[in-house]
Each structure stands twice: as structure tokens, then as C-alpha cells.
């Protein structure tokens, strides 16, 4: 596998880049602009980028060249802003901002699942055993951003525990996943709600323990990160859209058929040992079928994460998508 993606391993460089283009890009050829974020949940995008799988799918189908430009962003809110501005054609983000984006008419739909991952709420406070132990306190809980999938999952867990879904909203603080882990381990915050590979790394710290069981409300079999594409791309550039779907599917197939090779590659990006990375990778689920998105959207409506009604399932996905 090529190692060109190593240049993107530092966040500073990734944030500074507006596009990452292959050498010899074509001035007049077909073009696709895609964005993604950080973490193992985005491995299908990373593999597709590194191996040129979308370009290969387009070449095989049309005999023509396709330039794919990749950008790395910090959160789903930034991606929604970029979509609204017409700056990107496709992106990978979590369900929370996607449901919000579709309900606001941003103009995209889901073209494929990307991954399901385990989620856990970890704390450094030995007195905190259950969610109710945090309610009414000033103990801070870090998650990637307010309104994110993790925020909704926390609300789901509170609801299942018989509590107000928003009982801990005042305790929340937005941090990127690695920053939240560092703050938890340094004692700057009380708890951190995150996903792979950060939860596995936190679990290895004997000073931390899990609060409740987030898998009871949202398991790794359910969709976490999904791919969305603009309706304009789907409607006006069907060959590029199909190459996008085929390329990401090929990336998932590669991950599932070659886990050791995938882990060896992503370990370089994440700074983990190959053995640890393989463990983290195997905790995830990489498949094109979506799962649970209708239920997730309905809960967002019921818990008032949306201004109005949740979008119907068929309004969230393109017609090639399989699942619920």
C-alpha cells in the first residue's frame, strides 16, 4: 500500500490544506471534492484515498480520468457549512449533524454507511458510577461537539435511565477526540464520551473506568459514520456518483479482507502499535448497509434536537442505499 497519506498525519498540515490533489491533475477532466474527519471510523475514506479506489472505479466504468480532491475537517458542523456553501460534493460524518443537515435542507443524502464503532463514557472520578451521579453537579463531560452523535447518544442513555435527556447538557464541553482524552487523563475534566480508538486507549488507563453502558443504546452494529453526497452530484453526475459508491464499497471490502494490512497502514497515522491498531480496527463494523438511522432521527425529534419533525428514512438516503 502506498504511504502518501503519511503527510496528512499531523493535524496542523491537514487543517492548513484546502485540497489534497494527486500530481498531474487534469485541468479539464471530471472532478470530485470529498471531506472526512479523524479516527478509525473514517478508515474506508482513508483507504479509498490512499489506493485511488474511486478514481479506479470511474476509470473502469468510463475509460476516463477522475480527479478526487480530499480535505480533512474537525467536525460535522464544519462539513455542513462547506456543503451549504457548495464547496464539497461528498463527505463522511456522524448521524447527528447529518439528520440536522437534512432537516435544514442542506441538499445532501446518505449514499453509503461507512462504519459502526463502540462508544463509551469514561471517567476519572471513582465516585461516578452511573449517569445519575453526574446530574446536578458541575463535573464537565467532553464530547466532540454539542449536537453531535455522542450528544444524542448521551441523551438516549439518560432517557433509558428514566432521566431528562438533556439533564447533562450544562455539563458538556466540546473537544476534539484526542484533546478530550488528554484532558480526561490530566484531570482537567471529569468524563469523556468518545469512540475508537480513544476508548480502547482510555480503557488501558487503570485510573479510568466506564460510566454505565453506552452499547445498550447504540452498539457497534449501528451506523455511526456514514457517507453523504450532494443531490446535485447524484442527479447531474451519475457516473461520478456511482464511482464514489463503488470506491467506498471496495475500501470496505479491503478492510474486511485485509485487516492486518489495514491496521499496519492506519497505525502509522494514529501513532499506535500495529497490534493495538488491529484490536481497535476489529472492534468496528465496516459495511455499506445503514442501520438504525430512522430510529436515531426519530429520537432526535422526540428529544428536541431538531426544530421540527425528523426527516423520513426515504428522505435521508439515495435509492441505492440498503438498511434501516
Could you describe the 3D structure shown?
It is a single chain. This protein is α/β, with parallel strands linked by helices and 324 residues long. Helix content is 40%, strand content 16%. It has 14 helices and 10 strands. The chain has helices spanning 11-16, 43-51, 53-62, 76-84, 95-103, 149-160, 177-185, 198-203, 231-236, 238-257, 259-270, 274-282, 293-302, 313-316; strands at residues 30-36, 66-72, 90-94, 108-115, 119-123, 141-143, 172-174, 191-195, 209-210, 225-230. The strands form 2 sheets. A 5-stranded mixed beta sheet has the order 2-1-3-10-4, with helices on both faces. A 5-stranded mixed beta sheet has the order 7-6-8-5-9, with helices on both faces. Helix 2 crosses helix 10, helix 3 crosses helix 10 and helix 11 (259-270) crosses helix 12 (274-282). The protein is globular, with a radius of gyration of 19 Å. The chain starts with 10 loop residues before the first helix and ends in an 8-residue tail after the last helix. Residues 1-27 have low confidence and may be disordered.
Amino acid at each position: 500500500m502506498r504511504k502518501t497519506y503519511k503527510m496528512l498525519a499531523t493535524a496542523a498540515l491537514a487543517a492548513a490544506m484546502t485540497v489534497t490533489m494527486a500530481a498531474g491533475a487534469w485541468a479539464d477532466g471530471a472532478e470530485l471534492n470529498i471531506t472526512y474527519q479523524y479516527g478509525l471510523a473514517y478508515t474506508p475514506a482513508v483507504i479509498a484515498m490512499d489506493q485511488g479506489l474511486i478514481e479506479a472505479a470511474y476509470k473502469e466504468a468510463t475509460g476516463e480520468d477522475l480527479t478526487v480532491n480530499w480535505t480533512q475537517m474537525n467536525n460535522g458542523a464544519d462539513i455542513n457549512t462547506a456543503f451549504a456553501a457548495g464547496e464539497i460534493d461528498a463527505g463522511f460524518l456522524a448521524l447527528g449533524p447529518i439528520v440536522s443537515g437534512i432537516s435544514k435542507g442542506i441538499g445532501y443524502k446518505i449514499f453509503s454507511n461507512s462504519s459502526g464503532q463502540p462508544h463509551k463514557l469514561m471517567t476519572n472520578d471513582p465516585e461516578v458510577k452511573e449517569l445519575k451521579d453526574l446530574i446536578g453537579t458541575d463535573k464537565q463531560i467532553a464530547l466532540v461537539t454539542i449536537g453531535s452523535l455522542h450528544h444524542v447518544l448521551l441523551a438516549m442513555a439518560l432517557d433509558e435511565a428514566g432521566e431528562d435527556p438533556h439533564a447533562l447538557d450544562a455539563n458538556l464541553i466540546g473537544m476534539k477526540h484526542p484533546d478530550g482524552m488528554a484532558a480526561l487523563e490530566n484531570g482537567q475534566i471529569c468524563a469523556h464520551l468518545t469512540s475508537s480508538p480513544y476508548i480502547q486507549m482510555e480503557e488501558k488507563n487503570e485510573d479510568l473506568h466506564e460510566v454505565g453502558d453506552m452499547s445498550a443504546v447504540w452498539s457497534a452494529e449501528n451506523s455511526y459514520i456514514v457517507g453523504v453526497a450532494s443531490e446535485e452530484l447524484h442527479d447531474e453526475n451519475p457516473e461520478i456518483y456511482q464511482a464514489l459508491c463503488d470506491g467506498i464499497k471496495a475500501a470496505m471490502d479491503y478492510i474486511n479482507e485485509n485487516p492486518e494490512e489495514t491496521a499496519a497502514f492506519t497505525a502509522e497515522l494514529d501513532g499506535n502499535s500495529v497490534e493495538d491498531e488491529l484490536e481497535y480496527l476489529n472492534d468496528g463494523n465496516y459495511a455499506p448497509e445503514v442501520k438504525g438511522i430512522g430510529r436515531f432521527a426519530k429520537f432526535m425529534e422526540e428529544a428536541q434536537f431538531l426544530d421540527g419533525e425528523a426527516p423520513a428514512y426515504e428522505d435521508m438516503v439515495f435509492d441505492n442505499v440498503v438498511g434501516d
